[in-house]
Amino acid sequence: MKAFTALTAAELRLLSRDPASLFFMVAFPLMLLVLKRGDGGAVPGYLAMIATIGGMGALPGLLASYRERKVLKRLATTPISPVLLLGAQLVAQVAAGLAGSVLLVVVAIAVFGVRAPGDVLMLAAAFLLCSVMVCALGFMIAAVVRNTRGASLIGMLVMFPMIFLSGAAVPRKALPGSLRQIGDFLPLTPAVKALGDAWSGTAASFPLLILAGIIVVATAAGAALFRWE
Amino acid sequence: MEAIEVTDLRKAYGDTRAVDGVTFTVRAGETFGIVGHNGAGKTTTVECLIGLRRADAGTVRVLGEDPARRRRALAHRLGVQLQDSSLPERIKVGEALRMFGSFYRNAADWRRVMERWGLRPLARKAFGDLSGGQKQRLMLALALVGDPEVVVLDELTTGLDPIARRETWRLIGDLKTAGTTVVLVSHYFDEIEALCDRVAVFAHGRVEATGTTGELIARTGTASLEEAYLALEGADR
Ligand SMILES: Nc1ncnc2c1ncn2[C@@H]1O[C@H](COP(=O)(O)OP(=O)(O)O)[C@@H](O)[C@H]1O
Ligand SMILES: [Mg+2]
Q1: What pLDDT is recorded for position B236?
Q2: Which atom of ligand 1 sits closest to the CA of residue B19?
Q3: Are residues B10 and B122 both part of a single domain?
Q4: B123 lies in which domain range?
């Protein structure tokens, strides 16, 4: 436990030293909110976007670089299991996303007078599942794509269309029908829906179950394919 | 007592027989050198010792345990410096030492390790901003922060300048005084002569000879360890 806490703290510190992560997980969503003049309807989508930027924009490249630069190998010579590092990485990403999200929600409510979330507990559950899911997808990418550049690139290439087509960055209503249909098959779409429903207080458990299912499948696939070196 | 016993170790990567029947023992408290050409199987042997790789055949015992099966238990008593490994670019020296210290049951005080290895002035420097020699020194300090009984160092001083190399020798001398068992893979004969009680000469996945520097010189009828090595390796070609 002591080792896990130390690893997680170290990963969080490293994230906080990464200007790109800080910008995209904290400043960027706030800027979008200001541009949208505090449109409350956009906020749940932005929460999904913050999580996705961490889990798919940053995580795959990070894990691949730890593998390529033999950081994982060095850890494997210590008494801790390298799996612990993946766990610490997950907790750090979720925590960073949560920090950016809480800030966004507070600003939306306090500055722009957005109506507070209807079901805070469900919102928290949806955010947690959404974060873990995008991290599981990021892990899967790092398992399939072996080098750092490739893993970063694929992470971005999957992330950008996904945040646009799932309704995270722009409302799905604004999309042409064919694009909306593609969105129906993206794993982030149920996450955006779950977050939106929880915010408006009409949360259903079905989207959460879908997210849990995706987490299980992506983690299993990632674990089967991941190579430590 | 033997700290390490390797018997007829074999390991292949596809068609490459990297280690092809290696046998040697290292006594407790001994500093044991491994020399050999590039690709001789030194690193592969070392990685079997520390449980990173599973042998195809043969037995490996470190402190009486099989590293392939008891890697994690053994890791508490083992300090390792890999031939090539690194840390996250932005982690600071002090943070890395504290974090690695938290992994071990009987860790040394990380601040004292930092002090001892002259890393104190670098405590707030990021790994990515260190020079090659400073990185090596940190990796060595990390190998020792768990207060290990056996230390395995793979090409510790390769790429260091002569002053940094001498400095490292002094620190390894301290380990020896403290009774720590050390396995040192090196390309530098002066280093082996200065530090090691015994040496194994590796060639093409086998141990060509094992003995003290004096024994190897006598056996080959040469004048120095380097000449003895060349004679032994040459005989193999
Ligand atoms: N991971 C690996 N995959 C395939 N071949 C390898 C791997 N590691 C080492 N080898 C090969 O095994 C042989 C021994 O390598 P190594 O143990 O690294 O030798 P040394 O450390 O003495 O230079 C070399 O021919 C090397 O190319
Ligand atoms: Mg080597």
Answers
A1: 55
A2: 14
A3: no
A4: 87-148
The enclosing domain of B227 has a CATH number of 3.40.50.300
Chain B's closest residue to A82, CA to CA, is B72
Q: Classify residue B8: in a domain, yes or no.
A: yes
Each residue's pLDDT tens digit, B218-233:
999 999 899 999 988 8
ipTM associated with this complex:
0.92
Residue A28 burial by CB count (10 A; 0-12/13-18/19+): exposed, middle or buried? middle
B43 CB near ligand 1 (under 6 Å): yes
B102 belongs to a structural domain: yes
What residues does each domain of chain A span? 2-225
* Nearest-neighbour CA in chain B from A6: distance (Å): 6
Residues B44 and B160 in one domain: yes
Q: Are residue B15 and residue B118 in the same domain, yes or no?
A: no
Give the mutation candidate from A62, A77, A227 for the B interface (greatest B CB count, under 10 A). Answer: A77
Tell me which DSSP letter residue B65 carries.
B
For residue B82, tell me if it sits in a domain: no
DSSP A168-222: SSS-GGGS-HHHHHHHHTSTHHHHHHHHHHHHHT---SHHHHHHHHHHHHHHHHH
Q: Which of B114, B148, B182 is the last residue of a domain?
A: B148
Is B156 found in the same domain as B144? no
Mean pLDDT value of segment B179-202:
94
3-state SS assignment for residue A69: coil
Determine the residue of B35, B44, B158, B206 to mutate for testing ligand 1's pocket, defined as the one with the most ligand atoms within 8 A of the Cβ atom: B44
CB-ligand 1 contact for B41 (6 Å cutoff): yes
* Per-residue CA distances from A185 to A42, A126, A144, A210, B97 (Å): 21, 18, 21, 12, 46
Residue B54 clears pLDDT 80, i.e. is over it: yes
Distance from CA of A218 to the nearest CA of B (A): 26
- Could you read off the pLDDT of B4-53 as tens digits, one per residue? 999 999 999 999 999 999 999 999 999 999 999 999 999 999 999 999 99
Contact B74, B3 (CB under 8 A): no
Percent of chain B with pLDDT over 90: 80
pTM for this structure? 0.92
CA dist., res. B235 & res. B206, Å (int) = 13
HSE-CB at A48 with a 13 A cutoff on CA atoms is 34
Q: What is the pLDDT of residues B147-170, one digit of tens each?
A: 999 999 999 888 788 888 888 888
Query: What's at B208, amino acid-wise?
Result: E
Do B18 and B60 fall within a single domain?
yes
B63 and B100 together in one domain? no
